UniProtKB/TrEMBL annotation:
Keywords: Decarboxylase, Lyase, Magnesium, Putrescine biosynthesis, Pyridoxal phosphate, Spermidine biosynthesis. This is Arginine decarboxylase. The modification N6-(pyridoxal phosphate)lysine is found at residue 160. One of its GO terms (molecular function) is arginine decarboxylase activity. Its cofactor is pyridoxal 5'-phosphate; Mg(2+).
Length: 743
């Protein structure tokens, strides 16, 4: 236990005051106490080999529950890294992708064959997306076959779950063979869905949900003119008048759906939109009025779809079947009333088991899989329709979360850790400490010593605490110096550690903004599996919480799946990870492909992550990066807040010109030649421009050569490209650089 040894050494070196002798000089003081095995002592006293002797990658897999939440897409490979199985259960061994290799490829400097992207990084896996869409389709195909259901399944993807162009385009492409469509809830979403579906199957549904104005409705009607299969789902009764009026005006026969407000209520976090008091949909009275109004307008044949949405993360198939059954009754009633019904759209809610617990009573878990979900839906509809002798409708779902959650992984880095790094008592500190004690503190100190000798742990803690409080009071009064205060902290830490009462949880600082990248953790307490993506062959020796870069006390992650308030982590290697050291430590947040990217804001002006799109390919590393996009730069995030980075840059550049000139003059430095000024100012301007150009996140020292350019007034450049740009100020028309960077 080096910390202890260190303190004891320091203590032994000073002339011990009365009472202190036993405490400090006698090393039996602590050895008398049977020290409980804490994580701390484990790691610091045992060699790495011994620590790992009873540890294997399968221990890590079960510790982090990877097989529970990650199957069939994520597992641990023999190198101790997370590997991606891009085709799910059908993945062949040689197709597995080592996630660490992707991260290295993305983040290594361009000069080293990498893509030079900054972290945090989103790794997007189109193969996984394809597997999800196909698995959902097969689950319904199977349920339909097994139940002798007489119509097909035809799903749509709600684009709000992840609007990324490539995600939406991929889903349309992968689902084209089975008429997979899209759902939109606003005008820009509709525009994006329309343009994507131009490349899709002509039968694919384009479901238009959300509150609508005349412009939205016109757009949905235009979609039909463009031979896209748009369905206007009435969310409010007033929308109907607009639909009737506008469709007559543009001479388009609309396909209309109604969103029903069900009585079935889902009680989880996401259930507040459901039930009679829910925010959305038409009541039975309103649905009846809609039917009447359509009949009067001679348009009852246009009403073809019934939509409902119980809420996201539907916890059980029992609740699902209940809601679907209720909706199927409404569907049959609409048939009876003469509507030309064809489709029942069961909305979203197909859940994700984020912690792998298969629990029915948790917001982050669900007690079913794709297959059970599909069976419950098909059986509930079939049961109701058969009893009413109604032709089986086409079944549509708007499953968002279930399609996109698995396909992306957020990778970020821990760059330092702190927590039980107890302040070491210096000799001087100790001397001050004892000298500076008032009468009461002195008594506490003697009591503490005595209790320690008797091995009375409770009393030890009590006296240590009292001593600390008194010293803080003395400090506030001004009668105790800062060194003494630090020494008291060290002493109390030493005591609690020696008797095994210290909190072994470390704080790992991560190069991330929780608000930007994991908004649902901050906003609604949603948990995602977070796991180191490498070193899984080693026993994680400590526990930690994750603290982000933002200046906000909410910017930390201290709740993890499995009800844990800390995460098992490996000790940072070298000089503590990224910013100053070279032992990189990468963590991955999984299952965050839905909602997180769309919701993230720019708190503290941290923008989004870099993104790579990674396909499985049959090469030596079994993957190919097909797209690499750096995350938003400082300029990009400033622009979001209406700043004008170009003007800001000009202002700073002019100021630099002004002050550099003055500097030279005042200090008598430089030969004052225009040439010299020119080079210096250009280098300075270039470094300023680079700051606008870079992402807001920390740049790891190991990827940052910190090279001082010759003759540059001591400005530093953070990678080779920038360095070259700075030196080569005259030329340099790099596409990546701003044209005005190099004035
Ligand atoms: C959000 C939403 C969805 C998607 O829900 P998931 O739970 O992600 O599948 C589907 N339909 C509507 C109307 C929604 O509001």
């Amino acid at each position: 236990m080096p910390a202890l040894a260190c303190c004891v050494d320091a203590a032994a070196a000073v002339a011990p005051p009365p009472g202190y002798a036993t405490f400090a000089g006698d090393s039996s003081f602590f050895s008398a106490i049977p020290t409980p095995q804490t994580h701390t002592s484990d790691v610091t006293t045992t060699s790495v080999a011994a620590v790992n002797s009873h540890w294997s990658t399968s221990h890590s897999a079960s510790l982090y529950k990877i097989d529970r939440w990650g199957a069939p897409y994520f597992s641990v490979n023999s190198s101790g890294n997370i590997c991606v199985r891009p085709h799910g259960a059908e993945t062949l061994p040689h197709q597995e992708i080592d996630l660490l290799k992707i991260v290295k490829k993305a983040s290594d400097p361009k000069s080293g064959g990498g893509l030079g992207l900054q972290l945090p990084l989103v790794v997007r896996l189109p193969d996984v997306l394809k597997n999800r869409v196909e698995s959902l389709q097969s689950a319904f195909d199977f349920a339909i076959q097994a139940n002798g259901y007489q119509a097909r399944y035809q799903g749509v993807y709600p684009v709000k779950c992840n609007h990324d162009r490539f995600v939406v385009e991929d889903i349309v492409r992968f689902g084209s063979a089975f008429r997979f469509g899209l759902e939109a809830g606003s005008k820009p979403e509709l525009l994006l869905a329309m343009s994507c579906l131009c490349k899709g199957n002509p039968d694919s549904l384009l479901i238009c949900n959300g509150f609508k104005d005349a412009e939205y409705i016109s757009l949905a009607l235009v979609a039909r003119k463009l031979a896209l299969n748009s369905v206007i789902v009435l969310e409010q009764e007033e929308e109907l008048d607009l639909v009737i009026e506008l469709s007559n005006k543009v001479n388009v026969r609309p396909v209309i759906g109604v969103r029903a407000k069900l009585r079935t209520k889902h009680s989880g976090h996401f259930g507040s939109t459901s039930g009679e008091k829910g925010k959305f949909g038409l009541t039975t009275t309103q649905i009846l009025r809609v039917v009447k109004r359509l009949e009067q307008a001679g348009m009852l044949d246009c009403l073809q779809l019934l939509h409902f949405h119980i809420g996201s993360q539907i916890p059980t198939t029992a609740l699902l079947a209940d809601g679907v059954g209720e909706a199927a009754q409404i569907y049959c009633e609409l048939v009876r009333l003469g509507a030309n019904m064809k489709v029942i759209d069961t909305g979203g809610g197909l859940g994700i088991d984020y912690d792998g617990s298969k629990a029915a009573d948790s917001d982050i878990s669900v007690a079913y899989g794709l297959e059970e979900y599909a069976l419950a839906v098909v059986q509930a509809i079939r049961f109701v329709c058969d009893r009413k002798s109604v032709k089986h409708p086409v079944i549509c779902t708007e499953s968002g979360r279930a399609i996109v959650s698995h396909h992306s992984i957020l990778i970020f880095e821990a760059f330092s850790s702190g927590g039980y790094d107890s302040p070491v008592m210096s000799q001087a500190g100790l001397q001050y400490l004892v000298d500076g004690f008032g009468e009461e503190a002195g008594a506490d100190y003697r009591n503490l010593t005595a209790a320690t000798m008797r091995g009375e742990y409770e009393a030890c803690l009590l006296y240590a605490d009292q001593l600390k409080q008194r010293c803080v009071e003395q400090f506030k009064e001004g009668s105790l110096g800062i060194e003494q205060l630090a020494a008291v902290d060290g002493l109390c830490d030493l005591v609690s550690k020696a008797i095994g009462a210290s909190d072994p949880v470390l704080t790992y600082h991560v190069n991330l903004s929780v608000f930007t990248s994991i908004p649902d953790f901050w906003g609604i307490g949603q948990l995602f599996p977070i796991v180191p993506i490498h070193r899984l062959g080693q026993r994680p020796g400590v526990r930690g919480i994750l603290s982000d870069l933002t200046c906000d006390s909410d910017g930390k992650i201290d709740k993890f799946i499995g009800g844990e308030s800390s995460l098992p982590l490996h000790e940072l290697e070298g000089n503590g990870g990224g910013v100053s050291g070279n032992g990189r430590y990468y963590l991955g947040m999984f299952l965050g492909g839905a909602y997180e990217e769309a919701l993230g804001g720019v708190h503290n002006l941290f923008g989004g992550p870099s993104i790579v799109r990674v396909l499985q390919s049959d090469g030596p590393h079994s993957f190919a990066v097909t797209l690499a996009v750096p995350g938003p730069s400082c300029a990009d995030v400033l622009r979001v807040m209406q700043h004008e980075p170009e003007l800001m840059f000009e202002t700073l550049k002019h100021r630099a010109e002004e002050f550099c000139r003055q500097d030279d003059h005042d200090c008598g430095r430089g030969d004052g030649s225009n040439d010299d000024h020119g080079v210096k100012n250009a280098a300075l301007a270039s470094s300023l421009a680079q700051s606008f150009h870079n992402m807001p996140y920390l740049v790891a020292a190991s990827s940052c050569s910190l090279t001082a350019a010759i003759n540059n007034n001591g400005f530093y450049y953070c990678n080779e490209d920038d360095y070259n740009a700075a030196v080569d100020t005259a030329a340099g028309d790099d596409e990546q650089q701003w044209s005005y960077c190099i004035a």
